[in-house]
Amino acid sequence: MSTERFRLEKESAAIVVVDIQERLMAAMKHAKKIYRNTCIMLEAGKVLGLPVLVTEQYPRGLGHTVDEVRECLASYEPIEKITFSCCGDGNFMDAIKAVGRKQIILLGSETHVCVYQTCLGLLEAGYNVHLVRDAVCSRAKENYLAALDLMREAGAVITTTETALFQMLVKAGSDEFKAISNLVKKA
Predict the structure, then answer these.
(1) Catalytic residue among 81, 87, 119, 137
(2) CATH topology assigned to domain 9-186
(3) Disulfide engineering: 156 pairs with which of 123, 129, 144, 184, CB 3.0-4.6 Å?
(4) pLDDT tens column, 116-174
(5) 119 in catalytic set
(6) pLDDT digits (tens, 9 = 90+) for 58-101
(7) Domain ranges across the chain
């Protein structure tokens, strides 16, 4: 078995944050954990030079990206969509192609709807998806767990915030390592 798809490299990776919006997150039991891990990933992404794409599902009805996450973004330029899969939106696909990275670190809400469908679309488009299980959520645990299983079976790598970050760091002792270690310690 090849382990190539399990590798995550900062030069090849981009972060996609799916629909962490006000009205969606108000229904999530573990919202604060999702905000914390998303922000760790976003802050570390700045250190590592990772591009970030943010989507919002029908913001007129569901609100915008929550303040807790918006504050961690280098810039706030969400891609608005009405399709559950981000890949069903031409603006998203244009943006993801423009980023020029083939490894996607996927975060967001809800795990079994927009995140799941986006994951499948990215896999079908030839991207290597690393789903961060401690930075995605659903209202019901059963839906969350089922979606993780389905994405794993489809070919996504199921990871965690710290696993993904330290994999991209490769070694200790650098300024990047110190900055990211500090982010993780504060959590």
Answers:
(1) 81
(2) Rossmann fold (3.40.50)
(3) 129
(4) 999 999 999 999 999 999 999 999 999 999 999 999 999 999 999 999 999 999 999 99
(5) no
(6) 999 999 999 999 999 999 999 999 999 999 999 999 999 999 99
(7) 9-186
